[in-house]
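Quick one, T. Sequence first:
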Amino acid sequence: MSEIISIANQKGGVGKTTTAVNLAASLAEKGKKVLLLDIDPQSNATTSLGFSRGDYEFNIYHVLIGSKKLSEVVLKTAIENLSLAPSNIGLVGIEKEFYNPNKKNRELVLKAKLKEVSSQYDFIIIDSPPALGPITINALSASDSVIIPIQCEFFALEGLAQLLNTVSLLKKTINPKLKIKGFLPTMYSGQNNLSKQVLADLSHHFKDKLFHVRKGKECIVVPRNVKIAEAPSFGKPVTNYATSSKGSLAYRDLATVIVRG
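Structure tokens:
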């Protein structure tokens, strides 16, 4: 069975999609069979892998409403071992359906859909929307763990308590196996005192939940890097667009830790 990892943070602009895309690509680079699941209506993970809305007819919305099986919407990407379940702005419509109080087990719809393909992949990476609505709840309910990207900027920790409370509640109720895989500092600048302070705060509060390639070494941080920002416009992960950039190295390090388990 595959390991299912959600990338989540209800705060937007923290590098969530960038992390999902580049972690998935880095795991695939290591020879792992990976499915990247785009369940964000903005569909940025889909476009980051070179797909436009005219390239596919069906997407994750059709899976969640039950008109298509997950295997019927999965696309092969240009990256060996990496497949994509695309999203579309129409996914916004699923919110109303999930809020229907008469819909039984509405928090477990995605989990049920994933059962069809879970044996085909080593890892399933879920890029969730920047909100703690029913789509994100579905992602967390279906996952073994969650990685939380946190930007090294002002207000970085704002709203984090709400996400942690949600994870704790889901663990106590519908997904006992759910755990926090770790916190990933993003947009870090070694020349910026604010970045250093945020990283220090993270290290103080979540020391055991930061990622380390080697024990005793500094934790993995994703730097503020122009190549990371450029890569999506070329329809590529930064690991393919600028293979030796600092951003690429950071995500490869993260993949190393994830494979190690």
